[in-house]
Design a protein that fits this description.
single chain; alpha+beta; Alpha-Beta Plaits; 2 domains; 4-stranded antiparallel β-sheet; 3-stranded antiparallel β-sheet; 11 helices; 7 strands; about 50% helix
Length: about 325
């Protein structure tokens, strides 16, 4: 990072952050629909999950999305069941459908909650007989189970270390796909003393941990210096929102590849905790100013943006200032 000695410290820091944002958007421009998903889940969902299209266009313009890209993205998300909409004169308002809300809750709870540090040795096993469901439903199930941390052990066989309190989430996923009567879910543990391979021995067959560790380390390298720039001096609200969005967008894509295995199943010096801590610190440092920018952009003739729900302030263990 460069330092402009001729500028006051606050101005130099903001200039440095602006340069970082331009460089990131030029070198790795985010895909439009994926970025809309990030912004909806991270920023809009806590405020009721509803936004006027005109405000969304204003909000996303500094991130490189023009009006056409935003309109196309929300149209496609509506077609895929994430969003519903209605027109009010020449204006359109979009909001999360129940299906979209379920998808956001399943994905985003993995981003903001610290990984569990306890495991009792139990495993969740999902069995899907080959002829039980159509091929399209099998592909959709495989994707949903991957997001839930399951790894494929064989055709129609998926496993993960058991997670406390998440059986209801898995059941809701199966119901949403309409296949709950055709899938068997088992919880169990390895039988000691048989001399055979345990499920622990299949971890690297189910998940590419080396590639995932590389993703986490690249994420840390990419964002650690810009966090330092924000620590130097308070940044303006727009910069807080833009960098927070890019941070969560990138972190979301890494965590969705992460089965969040217990520490005893992971290689030494696993980098996920460092990446999570970076996100936590940045969020706590900037959330007030980022929310100011969000409210200003999404305010419309129909009224102000509703205040954030209480759960927003519980993200990353609580958004106390740092």
């Amino acid at each position: 990072m460069f330092i402009d000695a001729m500028k006051p410290p606050a101005t130099a820091s903001r200039s440095r952050i602006a340069h970082w944002i331009r460089r990131e958007l030029d070198s790795a421009p985010p895909k439009a629909k994926s970025l809309v998903v990030t912004v909806w889940g991270d920023a809009i969902a806590p405020h009721g999950g509803r936004a006027w299209l005109s405000g969304l266009i204003r909000l996303l313009a500094p991130l490189g999305l023009n009006e056409r890209l935003v309109r196309t993205s929300v149209y496609r998300l509506s077609g895929e069941g994430w969003l519903a909409n209605r027109r009010n004169g020449r204006q359109s308002v979009y909001w999360l459908t129940p299906q979209g809300l379920r998808r956001f809750e399943n994905a985003y709870r993995r981003i903001y909650a610290a990984p569990s540090d306890g495991w009792d040795g139990q495993w969740d096993v999902v069995l899907v007989p080959p002829a039980a469901i159509p091929a399209t439903a099998r592909r959709e199930l495989r994707k949903e189970l991957w997001w839930e941390g399951f790894g494929p052990l064989g055709p129609g066989l998926f496993v993960r270390p058991a997670r406390r309190g998440e059986s209801a989430i898995l059941a809701a996923t199966l119901r949403a796909l309409g296949i709950q009567r055709h899938v068997t879910v088992i919880e169990g543990r390895d039988v000691a003393g048989t001399g055979g391979r345990t499920l622990r021995n299949f971890v690297r067959d189910c998940w590419d941990l080396d590639a995932l560790a590389s993703e986490y380390r690249a994420f840390i390298k990419r964002f650690v210096n810009v966090l330092a720039a924000f620590r130097d001096t308070p940044a303006d609200p727009e910069q807080c929102f833009l960098v927070r969005t890019l941070l969560i967008h990138t972190f979301r894509r890494v965590t969705l590849h992460d089965p969040q295995l217990p520490l005893e199943l992971l290689p030494p010096r696993w980098p996920a905790a460092t990446a999570y801590g970076l996100c936590r610190d940045f969020y706590r440092l900037t959330h007030k100013r980022a929310e100011e920018h969000l409210a200003a952009m999404l305010e419309s003739q129909q009224g102000r943006l509703p205040p954030a729900a209480a759960y927003f302030y519980q993200r990353f263990g609580g958004l106390q200032d740092i």
